[in-house]
Amino acid sequence: MLQQRKTESMALKSYKPTTPGQRGLVLIDRSELWKGRPVKSLTEGLTKNGGRNNTGRITMRRKGGGAKRLYRIVDFKRTKFDVAATVERIEYDPNRTAFIALVKYADGEQAYILAPQRLGVGDTVIASAKADVKPGNAMPFSGLPIGTIIHNIELKPGKGGQIARAAGTYAQFVGRDGGYAQIRLSSGELRLVRQECMCTVGAVSNPDNSNQNFGKAGRNRHKGIRPSVRGVVMNPVDHPHGGGEGRTSGGRHPVSPWGKPTKGARTRNKNKASQKLIIRSRHAKKKGR
């Protein structure tokens, strides 16, 4: 077995072109992560659906195949208050881009949480009404100082974190407004959430995730991602951009296979209840506001 030669940079590994698949290959260096299997009581089976719904129709294109996964039950709610927990290990999770941390509470209970940046093995984390501002600690906005970088943010109290959970993402707590907290999201959106909502201090781990280069199509197939075929190479029966003699460029503004404008057309419902909680849209910077 030829030892894979690679050059080390911070958390990325770039490989020498010893084979066609290694040429240009840039991957995350996962040597610091736990090498064993996940905690069995914190896992569930995960069945594949190949992008089909309960009637067997494809509702999400370009999905199917891929390696078998175990679902890790991650605690997004952090409702175990005032019990300190020690980080046992940082693990890889195939179901998300971020890494997860196995924490063990003082009473012996174990849980997986999203691992923030600069959280290491042996660190203690706690969830309480007013905790220290250090990565991994969770608290409601009411106990948080303004200006803090946060992730895993709830939109409804007690529902569990929904915003800023992907690798390297974070939001910033920028102010209070009545019973609401103002947060600036990574998209540029400025919005309000209730001050009772929980959030976790720090930015999510694995910020180099977006700098990977998989080097070959097969690596995307392992992830369960199938090829995407462009509309202009299809026939007119399959896509509005299809057909034409020779190579054509579509001949109309880009649309989806169902004729809806794509690439920038607004689709958000103006009458949504949460519309009034958005102070500044993520599209505002495009308008030059």
UniProtKB/TrEMBL annotation:
Lineage of producing organism: Bacteria, Pseudomonadati, Pseudomonadota, Alphaproteobacteria, Rhodobacterales
Per the UniProt entry, what are the Gene Ontology biological process annotations, in alphabetical order?
A: cytoplasmic translation
Alphabetically ordered keywords of this record: Ribonucleoprotein, Ribosomal protein, RNA-binding, rRNA-binding
Q: Which family does it belong to?
A: Belongs to the universal ribosomal protein uL2 family.
GO terms (molecular function) for this protein are:
rRNA binding; structural constituent of ribosome; transferase activity
Q: What quaternary structure, including any partners, is listed in this protein's UniProt entry?
A: Part of the 50S ribosomal subunit. Forms a bridge to the 30S subunit in the 70S ribosome.
Name of protein: Large ribosomal subunit protein uL2
Q: In this protein, which residues make up the domain named Large ribosomal subunit protein uL2 C-terminal?
A: 133-261
- Specify the domain of life of the species encoding this protein: Bacteria
Here the segments flagged for biased composition (Basic residues) are 263-289
- Large ribosomal subunit protein uL2 RNA-binding domain: from which residue to which, for each copy? 51-127
**What job does this protein perform?**
One of the primary rRNA binding proteins. Required for association of the 30S and 50S subunits to form the 70S ribosome, for tRNA binding and peptide bond formation. It has been suggested to have peptidyltransferase activity; this is somewhat controversial. Makes several contacts with the 16S rRNA in the 70S ribosome.
